[in-house]
């Protein structure tokens, strides 16, 4: 059975785009590797933050739908995204976030890892995780980051899911997605690919009495899982369909190909191919500096640019 390789990207819903840019590129020091638009709503930005080269697995992306109401927490949503940082770096990060006025929770230990949870300016639950595995991941430091290389975020660590019925979701993860149960702790159940190294697992919790969650600013929109290429994608898509899911047809996102499907509890998942990648239409030295549109939207550039808010580089 050919499994997914781990997380490709996580996409969330933000408030005003400039505030989002100031936080993720300015405070957290990620590189804006692609400034584009939501291809299903081209009057809205789609902002991609990652390592210096935009490697799959380092990518946290946002739809800045500032007009939306705040999200409603509950089951059927991914409730938190976590980012991998090098061992011993949380002291640096706690100090930086405090200086920047970020709302933090008390440090935690999860499955033996040191974790610093906080909220971004629009309410998204984020956590920094000291990850030994992150040191061996594909990662290119960004020289333009305000964060020293030795403390820079290495990529996506994981995500949390809240479900009404644990059995339905975890059975799907085990059978249709070929995940492994990696452990349980304090009501959270960890499932992942292979050994569940950094960027290849999720934590799932059952909350049968919770209300149904709803998308809004500060919520995760979907989790994208990495596949090698289109052949790998189609093989996994077929297995998902055989397992009772409802995957879409393959959708060309230009920088990768996508298939979307809900897991049984309602969290939206995606299969995303490794390539062709963000360098296919921009000089790698200048990623994210200009508005980039897929070829089929170029004819609408003037109208799109007229409704998008102007963005300025964040203050470091």
Question: Shape, please?
Answer: globular
**Percent of residues in beta strands?**
25-35%
> At CATH's second level, what is the architecture?
Roll
State the helix count.
Answer: 5
What's the overall average pLDDT, rounded? 96
Structural class of the secondary structure composition? alpha+beta
What would you give as the CATH superfamily? 2,3-Dihydroxybiphenyl 1,2-Dioxygenase, domain 1
CATH secondary-structure class: Alpha Beta
The total domain count is: 1
How big is the Rg? 18 Å
C-alpha termini separation = 46 Å
CATH topology: 2,3-Dihydroxybiphenyl 1,2-Dioxygenase, domain 1
Give the helix proportion (percent range): 10-25%
SSE order, as H and E?
Answer: EHEEEEHEEEEEHEEEEHEEEH
Give the tally of β-strands.
17
Stretches with pLDDT under 50, minimum 5 residues: none
**Mind summarizing the main beta sheet?**
9 strands, mixed
Structure commentary:
The protein starts with 6 loop residues before the first strand and ends in a 9-residue tail after the last helix. With 316 residues, it is α+β, with helices and mostly antiparallel strands. It has one domain: 2,3-Dihydroxybiphenyl 1,2-Dioxygenase, domain 1 (Roll), CATH 3.10.180. The model has no long low-confidence stretch (mean pLDDT 96). It is built from five helices and 17 strands. It is globular. The longest helix has 13 residues. The strands form two sheets. Strands 5, 6, 7, 8, 9, 10, 11, 12 and 13 form a nine-stranded mixed beta sheet that branches.
């Amino acid at each position: 059975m050919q499994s997914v390789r781990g997380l490709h990207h996580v996409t969330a819903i933000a408030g005003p785009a400039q505030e989002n840019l100031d936080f993720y590129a300015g405070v957290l020091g990620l590189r804006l590797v692609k400034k584009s638009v939501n291809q299903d709503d081209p009057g809205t930005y789609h902002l991609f933050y990652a390592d210096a080269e935009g490697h799959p697995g380092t990518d946290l992306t946002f739809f800045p739908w500032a007009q939306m109401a705040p999200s409603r927490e509950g089951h059927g949503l991914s409730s938190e995204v976590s980012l991998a940082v090098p061992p011993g770096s949380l002291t640096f990060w706690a100090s930086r976030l405090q200086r920047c006025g970020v709302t933090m929770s008390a440090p935690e230990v999860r499955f033996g890892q040191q974790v610093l949870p906080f909220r971004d300016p629009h309410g998204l639950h984020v956590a920094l995780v000291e990850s030994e595995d992150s040191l061996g991941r594909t990662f290119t430091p960004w020289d333009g980051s305000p964060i020293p290389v030795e403390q820079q975020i290495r990529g996506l660590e994981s995500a949390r899911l809240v479900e009404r019925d644990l059995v339905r979701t975890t059975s799907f993860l085990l059978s249709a997605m070929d995940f492994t149960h990696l452990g349980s702790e304090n009501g959270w159940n960890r499932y992942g690919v292979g050994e569940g190294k950094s960027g290849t697992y999720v934590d799932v919790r059952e909350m049968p009495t919770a209300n149904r969650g709803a998308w809004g600013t500060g919520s995760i929109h979907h989790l994208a899982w990495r596949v090698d290429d289109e052949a790998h994608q189609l093989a996994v898509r077929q297995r998902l369909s055989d397992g009772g899911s409802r995957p879409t047809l393959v959708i060309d996102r230009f920088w990768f190909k996508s298939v979307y499907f809900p897991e049984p509890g309602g969290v939206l998942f995606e299969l995303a191919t490794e390539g062709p990648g963000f360098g296919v239409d921009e000089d790698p030295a200048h990623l994210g500096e200009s508005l980039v549109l897929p070829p089929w939207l170029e004819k609408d550039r003037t109208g799109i640019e007229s409704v998008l808010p102007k963005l300025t580089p964040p203050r470091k």
